[in-house]
Specification:
Distance between the termini: 44 Å
Low-confidence stretches: none
Mean pLDDT: 96
Strand order of the largest sheet: 3-2-1-4-5-6-7
Number of domains: 1
Number of helices: 9
Largest sheet: 7 strands, parallel
Strand content: 15-25%
Radius of gyration: 18 Å
CATH architecture: 3-Layer(aba) Sandwich
Order of helices and strands: EHEHEHEHHEHEHEHH
Length: 246
């Protein structure tokens, strides 16, 4: 029986991962900002076979509240076999360009709070000398594109942090998986003008995430065709790249 911590548990991708783990009788500690939505996800996971589900309301950007959340998690689960960090927001790039305070708030949502949680969880799993740590980053972090470079900056910071943390925790038998989804059909992307052929369903993305965590994969691009797409984007010469509307 796996004991699983999910931060950002009400997100579509995280909830879909939870349903897969629940079928194997996993025990959960769910963390999210909205208590009502957390309750809905909790009931759903119980219906799918979860052995036990605990929930905890947290504003992830309140760094001072992280240790109490961790203590409650360890009281409930005793140890953490899998930790998935899945919270985040999708900033309005134009609004962030015109409002430095909003830009910093979005960086706090998508980078600083995530790095703080990774630090806390990394230390716990290092003490355990056991477990898997996974975080949802994004393909947006692979190169700063004009349409979303604030979001990309945050995700690049998370991905780079995970790379160093992975090398550190490997020595004690703990895996760190960086998850880089492309476009996914979720409430966060609702209303965006996205190419339909590139949009994935959260259930399919969740299947790939659960498999990657089980296999201790370092970095997961999901769906897998994003490996090729981002390879091309990363290695476009600057004299071409800066003329494109990406």
């Amino acid at each position: 029986m796996k004991r699983i911590l999910i931060i950002g548990a009400t997100s579509a991708i995280a909830a879909a991962c939870g349903r897969i783990w629940a079928k194997d009788g996993a025990e959960f500690f769910l963390v999210g900002r909205n208590a009502e939505k957390l309750n809905q996800v909790s009931n759903d996971l119980r219906a799918h076979g979860a052995t036990a589900v605990n929930s905890y309301s947290l504003e992830a950007t309140d760094i001072s509240a992280h240790p109490a959340m961790m203590q409650n998690c360890l009281t409930a689960l005793k140890q953490i076999d899998i930790a998935l960090i899945a919270h985040g927001t999708l900033p309005d790039q134009k609004a962030c360009e015109n409002d430095v305070h909003l830009a910093l708030q979005e960086l706090s949502n998508n980078a600083i709070s995530v790095i703080a949680l990774l630090t806390l969880l990394g230390n716990q799993l290092e003490t355990q000398r056991h477990g898997s740590l996974a975080v949802i980053s994004s393909v947006a972090g692979d190169r700063g594109r004009p349409s979303n470079y604030l979001y990309g900056t945050a995700k690049a910071a998370v991905s780079t942090f995970c790379e160093g943390l992975r090398a550190r925790l490997f020595k004690v038998g703990v895996s760190v998986t960086t998850i880089k989804p492309g476009f996914v059909q979720t409430p966060m992307t609702k209303g965006l003008d996205l190419p339909s052929l590139l949009i994935a369903q959260p259930e399919n993305v969740a299947l790939s995430i659960v498999k990657a965590i089980r296999n201790k994969t370092d970095t997961l691009y999901t769906p897998s065709f994003w490996v090729l797409i981002m390879f091309i984007i990363r290695y476009l010469p600057n004299f071409i790249f800066k003329r494109l509307n990406l």
